[in-house]
Amino acid sequence: GRAHEKIVNKGVNLSIVIREASNLSDINSLGGGHPPAAGTKIPINKLDVFLENCNKIVRNQLQNN
Question: Of 44, 43, 16, 21, whose CA–CA distance to 32 is shortest?
Fold first, then answer.
């Protein structure tokens, strides 16, 4: 996915989001990218937990910056 420049300027790094959410969701994938854009492959049975973890990580990034 892609993040708007305003979100990146507020401290969101999608590369970190994808990697950390994959780890927290027990997904063995090679996801990543850079702050405004990143991607990975997610098994359908892990999608909900992965998205929940992404939301938590983004929230934390916004609160800590």
Answer: 16
Residue 65 neighbours by CB distance under 10 Å: 10
Structure tokens at 65: 């910056």
Neighbours of 15 (CB within 10 A): 16
State the burial class of residue 42 (Cβ atoms within 10 Å of its Cβ: 0-12, 13-18, 19+): buried
Round to whole Å and give the CA distance between 45 and 27. 11
- Per-residue pLDDT of 1-37, as tens digits, reads 888 899 999 999 999 999 999 999 999 888 889 999 9
Alpha helix (H) ranges present in the chain? Answer: 5-9, 14-24, 47-63
